[in-house]
Design brief:
Length: 112
């Protein structure tokens, strides 16, 4: 399974949880955000990670502090482009196992 397949699984799952897609694979000079969705009034920036085994700490451990900073900067840039204030949060969507069958959705996984 590759990254785009993992994102499709995440998107489908989160839409079933009533989140609404705003942007997918948003890129700017600071980095990339896999999914930007709305959960009611809240704008949610979602990092999707896939790991087939727990060697090196698994999917959650792959969202390092450096990666978190890059996501935060990218989100700030996105919000300035929108020219609007919105409550927001940062979620992690983790897939593990051989076929990504183990799903963990962590709301408010990190932030400022």
């Amino acid at each position: 399974m590759n990254g785009s397949e993992a994102e499709k699984i995440a998107l489908s799952y989160l839409q079933r949880q009533h989140l609404v897609l705003v942007e997918q694979n948003y890129r700017c000079r600071f980095g990339e955000i896999d999914l930007i969705m709305r959960d009611g009034e809240t704008l949610v920036f979602i990092e999707v990670r896939m790991r087939t085994n727990e060697k090196y700490g698994g999917a959650a451990a792959s969202i390092t502090s450096k990666k978190q900073i890059r996501i935060l900067r990218t989100a700030r840039y996105y919000l300035t482009e929108l020219k609007m204030e919105s409550p927001c949060r940062f979620d992690a969507f983790l897939l593990s196992g051989i076929n990504g069958q183990e799903i963990e959705w962590i709301r408010d996984a990190f932030g400022e």
